[in-house]
Automatic annotation (TrEMBL):
GO biological process, one term: methionine biosynthetic process
UniProt organism field: Methanofollis formosanus
UniProt entry tagged with the keyword rRNA-binding: no
Gene3D superfamilies: CBS-domain
Alphabetical UniProt keywords: Amino-acid biosynthesis, CBS domain, Methionine biosynthesis
SUPFAM superfamilies registered for this protein in UniProt: CBS-domain pair (SSF54631)
Pfam families, alphabetized: CBS (PF00571)
UniProt keyword Amino-acid biosynthesis present: yes
Domain of life per record: Archaea
UniProt protein name: CBS domain-containing protein
Amino acid sequence: MYVRDYMTKDVVSVEIPSNRDDILKILKRTGISGVPVTEKGKVVGVVTRKDLLRKSEETQVALLMTPNPVMISVDATLTEAATVMTRYRFRRLPVIDENECLVGLISAADLVAAIAQLRIKDEISECYTSSTFALWEETPLPLVGRIMEISDVEAVPIMDDKGRVSGIIAERDLIRSSHIEDSVEVSDFSNGTDDDEWTWESIRDMHVISYGVSKVRLPDKPVSASMITNVITVPKNAGVSECALLMKRSRLDQLPVVNGDKKLIAMLFDRELIKVLCAGAGEAPDQ
């Protein structure tokens, strides 16, 4: 199973110079989690949803992107791709040819699609699931974004006031709800004094600078207004390939895991599920 057979060949990328607004439009329109940044056909960086949310005031792609990204050869195996993604917690890898030119992109979703073809009946159990937490559905969206940033998670289950899972919020949903806000801020560099003397010297030492600020903002509304309410869950004894197929068909990055009483106990993220490829587990895919 090789990268060249599962990678996305029609890659959405941006060229330097470019700006944040262009990338935000791409992520909103396509729902993808990040884009490679190229210069003269060579990959020089990657910009992700996390970069836009964490560097909300930055507009230049060169400062937003992660430079010198890890890349993988078009002739590499899926095991190699999964190992690199798992080790560095990446969700995507630019794929290059022998001339180091961008020819594709291999993502966690592509690896999940490969796992869905395998007959891996091993249960997801604790090997691939992650402990999780939930937020109340009335939590303000900007606070949700900040909590997700601090916790370094891609998605969080949302609960109602009775403790039932009522939805889920992911980075993709935050990006879709965000908007660009332009404002003017003022910085005062005056040499302050305790007296109120209006002299030419005091006026001369007053330095006030006004400058424009453009930020990626989340609206001040409850998370219930942006969350996905049709939540697909899986039991803790679900099979690996079964979950991968469910993720593929529903275009999901994660699945809440519930017990026999339908209570939330963990989360299954695609970045954890692809670990199964690191060991080369499973049988050959159906032809």
